[in-house]
Amino acid sequence: MARTHLIAALASLALFLGACTDASNSGTAASETRAPAEAAVSADPDQGPGDPRGTAANSAGTATSYPLTIETCGVRSTLNGPPERILLYYGFAEPLLLWGLGDAVDGLVSFAPSSSYPGMEALYATLDITNQQFNREVLIAMSPDLVISASDFAFNAEAGFLTREELSEAGIATWIPESLCAQDKADPTPEEADALATRGFEQVLMDLAELGRLVDRQAEATALVAEMEAKMTEVEAQVAGLDPVRVAIVTADRDGSRITGVYTGGVNEDIIRRVGGLNPFVTPESSQYTSLSMEQLTVTPLDAVLTDIDLEPGGGEVLLSQFPTWPAAQNGRIDHIAGLVGNSPGLPWAAEQLAQVLHSIPAPPPGEAGMRGGLVRPPGTAPHPPFRRRLRVERHRTRGGSGGSRIPLGRTQHRARSAARPGWTAGN
């Protein structure tokens, strides 16, 4: 039986991975991770894009000046003050919670609480809304200050959503990191596709720093970035000198009957390299995602396989049985990741746990440095259904004082995870 692990850093962005395939296929190749892209963020509406006064890299330690003009992915909008009502699509809840802005989060789409960042479970419990959908009328009625998304799909008119231009006309600021402009976008520019395909850990740090500027949390963002850099340096030191492990993240049918593609770029590929993995499917021409024939897969040995979805029971064995010459099949090494990529502050801790799995590095006891939070499932255990806690919430916000309109933000279902289940490390 194939042994199975669960490495979970940000489950919302696991869904995000699956949704991103089409746009990823349109990516332009790049052989190396290029310098992080910096979006234009200016306190002066007349300030042109690229003026260094407006970049996140120059914002540490200075208070944000509003009104703030934001320009990413060719769209400009204005944030008139520190945001008090924020809608989030496909991530970014974690940094806001860490920076004390949980009360400002009015809505989330495609969110599932899961992170390996130390202490995130307690912060998740402070959120009383999750997994909503907002049509055009509801979104305008909610009148958010800022809408943040890790995907262009949140502003897709054909899907029934308001475009960023329409939101800007309504006085609502929007932000997609410049490095994610191509995500789920039907017609990304070559530059946008290249930025997505080459997006690595350093760019995640840049995006978090820029987010800190938008919400006037520069000092907190600077501290978080420094902590993440230090942790990633520690992880890379753990695997220095170890033999590389041939591994790839694949998309597959849930029954394991077919591999539909392989991730060959982006943050996940960068993390694989940093923890001593080697993806043999990556070429200088690789985009973020590559479709491969059965023959190409068969002749390319893998020591370990990672899947971006949790396969059905027995699905791992079915998948590996099609490639009997792979060392991964001979040793039953198939692992499920649920959000290794993305914008999670827990990314370096998730990388550490991936390194432990790939290189059979013993994990320190829970609570010790190097395994804080703990999100690796012990070998031989079966997945358990997530503990569900239903929160019947009807939160109302009044805009403009007691005489404003009352807008119900809905009844939501919040997914929590049991930290006390026998045989599981905290966070699963």
Describe this structure in a few short sentences.
The chain has 14 helices and 18 strands. The protein has 428 residues and is α/β, with parallel strands linked by helices. α8 packs antiparallel against α9 (218-239) and α9 (218-239) runs parallel beside α14.
Polypeptide structure, described:
The protein is an alpha/beta fold and 428 residues long. 28% of the residues lie in helices and 16% in strands. The chain has 14 helices and 18 strands. Strands 1, 9, 10, 11, 12, 13 and 14 form a seven-stranded mixed beta sheet that branches. Helix 9 (218-239) runs parallel beside helix 14. It is globular and about 60 Å long. Residues 1-39, 44-59 and 367-428 have low confidence and may be disordered.
Feature tags:
disordered N terminus; 428 residues; seven-stranded mixed sheet; alpha/beta; 18 strands; four-stranded parallel sheet; 14 helices
SSE topology sketch:
Elements: E1 6-7, H1 12-19, H2 21-25, E2 40-42, E3 68-72, E4 75-79, E5 86-89, H3 93-98, E6 105-109, H4 120-124, H5 136-142, E7 146-149, H6 164-169, E8 173-175, H7 190-197, H8 201-214, H9 218-239, E9 245-252, E10 259-263, H10 266-274, E11 277-278, E12 289-290, H11 294-298, E13 304-307, H12 315-321, H13 327-331, E14 334-337, H14 347-359, E15 388-391, E16 396-398, E17 406-408, E18 412-415
Parallel strand pairs: 1-14, 5-6, 5-7, 7-8, 9-11, 9-13, 13-14
Antiparallel strand pairs: 2-3, 3-4, 9-10, 10-12, 15-18, 16-17
Helix pairs in contact: 8-9, 9-14
Number of strands: 18
How many distinct helices? Answer: 14
Structural class: alpha/beta
Quaternary status: single chain
Unreliable segments of 5+ consecutive residues:
1-39, 44-59, 367-428
- Biggest sheet: strands, sense, closure? 7 strands, mixed
β-strand percent reads 15-25%
What's the pLDDT, averaged over the residues? 74
Could you say which overall geometry the principal axes of the C-alpha atoms support?
globular
- N-to-C span: 22 Å
Could you tell me the radius of gyration in angstroms?
21 Å
Helical fraction equals 25-40%
